[in-house]
Prior knowledge:
With about 220 residues, this protein is mainly β. The strands form 2 sheets. Strands 1, 3, 4, 5, 6, 7, 8, 9, 10, 12, 13 and 14 form a 12-stranded mixed beta sheet that branches. It has one domain. Strand 3 and strand 4 (about 70) form a beta hairpin. It has helices at about 1-15, 40-45, 105-120, and strands at about 25-30, 35-40, 55-65, 70, 75-80, 95-100, 125-135, 135-140, 145-150, 155-160, 170-175, 180-195, 205, 210-219. It has 3 helices and 14 strands.
Amino acid sequence: MKNRGIVLALxxxxxxxxxxxxxxxxxxxxxxxxxxxTGSCTANGExxxxxxEAVLAWRIANGQWxxxxxxxxxxxxxxxxxxxxxxxxxxxxxAKTVFLVDERANQAQRAALxxxxxxxxxxxxxxxxxxxxxxxxxxxxxxxxxxxxxxNLAAISTRPxxxxxxxxHNESVYYPPLAANxxxxxxxxxxxxTYNGNHLGKxxxxxxxxxAFVGSFxx
Length: 219
């Protein structure tokens, strides 16, 4: 089935790379410009038309990467791909990425944050067109409810899915998260999601889309 092929392809795309020295843990959120929790009819209708864009964010609770301590810091990756992310019949690469790194981080920490994010996505974030240091605020208001503000460039607000969000009543997780090494991830509703930068040739705003994942990592 095509659905299984899409899941397999994205699983390969996001296969984990070996972890750098040291334990690291924290929280994760992403939103996409396509539904990730949906039925095949809706997903096939979006294929090639949307879903090329995503915003991925990690907040490091504690730990280090490449022997650089990252406690309390965050990194956001804004990506615009060549195809619908997760489509087994199309190559999302080359994909252009803008990194938004925590302005509190020093130069070594900023480099480690970017490398950490790239290591979780197996090549998806390798073509970097810009890196900017911004204030990043990452908050949780309950199970499935996350807010992210990265300067004035990117923002995410999610809420848990409910039965009212099932249109066909046969929905499932059609696409897995774009990040590997998550020990928990749940689909969520994008209450609002935006990217307002000028490096990717496009800005976007999403509301009321079943296109988010909220999760955590520890390895």
